[in-house]
Amino acid sequence: MNSVNSAILDASTGWAILGGFSLLWVALGWYWGRHAQQLDDYVLAGRRVGLALGTATAMATWVTSNTTMAAPQLAFQIGVWGMLGYSLGSIGLLMFAPLATRIRSLMPNGYTSGDFVRTRYGHTAWRVFLAISLFYSLGWLVSMGMAGGILIHALTGIPYHYGMTVILAICVGYTLLGGFRAVIGTDFIQALLILTGLVVIAFLAIRQVGFESIHSAVLAERPELLDLLMPAAIMFLFNNLLFGIGEVFHSNVWWSRAFSFREGVGFKAYTLAGLLWAPIPIVAGFVALAVPSLHLNVPAADMVGPMVAANLLGVTGAVLVLVMVFAALSSSLDSLLAATSILIVEDIYRRHFKPHASAEDMRRAAARIIVGLGVLTWLLCAPRLTTLAELLYFTGAFVASTIWPIAAGLFWQRTNSNAAIAGMVLGSAAGLYSYFAIGFYVAALTGAAVSMLCVLLGTWLAPREFDWAQLREDHPLHVKELP
Amino acid sequence: MTMPTGILAALVLAALAITAAAPLLLLALLIRDWKRKQLW
Question: Between A102 and A302, whose confidence is greater?
C-alpha cells in the first residue's frame, strides 16, 4: 500500500500542526531557559525539580515513539504478550526509584552516570560503560528520528525525510535554547497531550469496533496473537523486563533526572511515573489487535499503530495521533539530547581533552554537542536501514549487561571492579550472540544473565572494599556560577 | 490457551482507567507544588 495515497490528513494540515507545535515548543524553551545563567541551571534545572514536574518528565520521557509505535507493532507480531511485555518496561522506572534516592545521597553534586562508574570502578570500566551508553543513546535517538519520519509520512503523506528533519530540528532548537528546564517544562505539557490523546483514541476504538468483534476476528485470522503460552512471546516478556531495567539503570537520561530532583522527590517521582506508565503500552498495543477485524493490509509492521488509528478515527483521529506522537517523540528526544550532551561534555570533552574547562566552556560545549547529536542522528536516520523494534532490541544486548554492575556498585560495598568490567563486556558479547543466533527477544535476557554471573562470581571470589565518600568528593564540575 | 474476551476487555479497560486518571493527578500535583513554591 502506498501510504501517501492512504494518508488521512493532507500534507498542508500536517505542516500546519507541526508548525504550530514547533513554534510553541521553541517559544516555551526560550522562555523557561532565559534565566538559566548558572551551569547547574542549564544542565540540571537547578537541582530543585518538584514532584509534579519530576513525575511528568520521567513518565513522558519513557513514553517514546517506541511505546506509541513499537507497542502496537509488537502486539501485531506476538500478540497480547507483546503489549503486556512492553508494559513491564515500567519495572525499570519502579526499580530505579530507590536507586534515585541512593544516587542523590551518594553524589549530591554529581552530573552523569559516567561520573559514578569512573569513581566506583576505575577508568577501564568507565570507558566500556561510556561505549555502551553512547551506543545506546544513539540507537534510541535514531529509532525516534525514524519514528518521526514514518509516522508523519503515514498520517500526512509528508515525505519521510522532511518529517524526520522537522522533528529533529525542533527538539534540537528548544533544548539548545532552554537546556534542561525547557526539557522538563515541555515534558509536562507533552505528558498531558500523550495521555489525553491515547485515552480518546482507545475509547473511540472500543466504541466503534468493540471487544467482541476484535477478539473474534483475531481468533479467526491470527489466533496465535491471543495464545497465552506462545513460547517466543513469553521469552519476550522477560527479555523486555530486563531490557527496560538495563535502559533505565545505566542511561544518563535517568541519572540526570535523579541529580535534578529536589531532595526527597526522586523515589516518589519514579514510583509514580512507573505506575502511570505501565498501562500505556497496553492501551496503545490493543489498537493493533483491531487489524484483522478491519481487514487492513499492513505493509510494514512499524506502521500498524498509525494505520489502525487513522482507519478507525478518520481526520480527527489522525490529527490526534499526530499531536500525541509528536509529543511522545519530542519528550524523549529532548531528554536524550540534553542527557547525552552532558555525558559527552563531562566524560569525554572535559575528562579526556580539557580537564581545566570553565563552566562557560562546558555550557558552550553542551550547546555544540546538542547540535552535533542532531546532525549525526539525521545522517543515521536518512537511509532508514531497519525497523524500529529491530533497532531498539539490538541495543538490548548491551544495556542489560550494565544492570548488575550499576546496582551492585550502588548498594554493595565489596563489588569487584574487574568483575563489573567482565560483566559488561561478556554480557554484551553473549547478548549480541543470542540476538543473531536466536532472536531479538532473548538478547537482553542473555546479556543480563551472563553479566550477573560475572559480577556475583567475581565479587564472591575476590571482594574489594570501597569507600563511599569517594563518590561524594568527586564533583569537580559543580561550578556554582558562570564567570 | 487463548485469552478470553472478558479478560482482554478487563485488562484494557483497567489500563484505560489509569491512563485517564493520570493527567488529573499530574495537574493536582502541579497545583500543590506551585502553592508550596516547589515547582523547580
Answer: A102
Angstrom distance (rounded) from CA A259 to CA A113: 10
Q: Which three cell numbers stand for residue A299?
A: 505493509
Closest approach of B9 to chain A, Cα-based (Å)? 6
Architecture of domain A3-473: Up-down Bundle (1.20)
Give the residue numbers in A contacting B (CB under 8 Å), as ranges: 45-46, 48-53, 55-56, 59, 80, 87, 181, 184, 188, 191-192, 195-196, 198-199, 202-203, 206, 211-212, 215-216, 219, 223, 226-229, 262, 272, 275-276, 278-280, 282-283, 286
* DSSP notation for B2-40: BPPHHHHHHHHHHHHHHHHHHHHHHHHHHHHHHHTT---
Q: Which residues contact A284 (CB under 8 A, 6 or more apart)?
A: A67, A68, A71, A72, A83, A198, A202, A305
Question: Which residues of chain B are within 8 Å of residue A53 when distances are taken between CB atoms?
Answer: 30, 33, 39-40
- What is the 3-class SS of A179-229, one letter each residue? HHHHHHHHHHHHHHHHHHHHHHHHHHHHHHCCHHHHHHHHHHHCHHHHECC
The closest CB to that of B30, out of A52, A87, A226, belongs to A52
Q: Are the CB atoms for A61 and A332 separated by under 8 Å?
A: yes
**Residue B27: pLDDT above 80?**
yes
| Chain B interface mutation, best of A31, A51, A212, highest count of B Cβ atoms under 10 Å | A51
Q: Judge whether A54 and A198 are in contact, CB under 8 Å.
A: no
Q: How far apart are alpha carbons A92 and A480 in whole angstroms?
A: 32
What is the share, in percent, of chain A residues with pLDDT greater than 90? 50
Tell me the three state secondary structure of residue A7: coil
pLDDT tens profile A54-104: 999 999 988 876 677 778 888 888 888 888 888 988 999 999 999 999 999
Smallest CA–CA distance from B7 into chain A, residue: A211
Q: What is the pTM of this model?
A: 0.89
> pLDDT value at position A4?
42
Most confident of A296-300, A429-433, A441-445: A429-433
SS3 A49: strand
Res A2 pLDDT > 60: no
